[in-house]
Design goal:
23% of the residues lie in helices and 29% in strands. It is built from 4 helices and 13 strands. It is globular, with a radius of gyration of 16 Å.
């Protein structure tokens, strides 16, 4: 089976992702464009572990499902992403399918990497808003802060900023908290 070219082609669909080898690269599709990024650094992964650990405790107490990358989120045939961490509440568990989460997770977390900053702060943020993800956290390892975007009547407005010494919480997951230090992988 021939592999689709990774550059110079648009119009990628979900089925194209299955044609790539398992090679530790993250492949996502945004508006038909293939986005390929390398494996993240250790601090990034520490942040993922801490956030997943907190959300796993929440899952055990309240239901729902937490998933770290690589877990596909199928928003449409030409919009398939792999957030660093996602959570689907118990009342939306029907969105969890065998191969992917279909539709908007309740919480999406992206952790910064120098090579993905623009992708996560512009393209993916706009995509999450477009498809109705109620809350998006951007964990900025360079600025030592977490930007929290919440849907209102329209697209995400200005973020609420959380810094070291503060605790993150969310109306999307009542009772869930995590310190900014933990979210930063410290």
């Amino acid at each position: 089976m021939a592999l689709p070219a990774e550059t110079g082609r648009t119009g990628f669909r979900y089925a194209d992702l299955a044609l790539f080898p398992e090679d530790n690269l993250r492949r996502e599709i945004i508006n038909g464009e293939l986005i390929v990024t390398a494996a993240p650094a250790t601090r990034h992964q520490s942040a993922v572990v801490n956030i997943v650990g907190g959300l796993l405790a929440y899952q055990r107490a309240h239901g729902g499902k937490v998933f770290p990358a690589p877990t596909d989120v199928y928003l449409s045939d030409d919009n398939v992403v792999e957030p660093d961490v996602l959570f689907v509440r118990a009342d939306h568990i029907d969105r969890v399918e065998n191969k992917y989460v279909k539709g908007a997770p309740d919480l999406v977390v992206e952790i910064s990497s120098p090579s993905t900053r623009r992708l996560e702060l512009v393209r993916k943020r706009d995509l999450y808003a477009q498809f109705g993800v109620p809350e998006y956290w951007y964990v900025d390892l360079e600025a030592d802060r977490v930007e929290v975007y919440r849907l209102g009547e329209g697209p995400y407005g200005a973020p609420t900023l959380f810094y070291t010494g503060q605790v993150l919480d969310t109306p999307v997951l009542p009772g869930f908290t995590i310190t900014v230090e933990e979210a930063l992988g410290n």
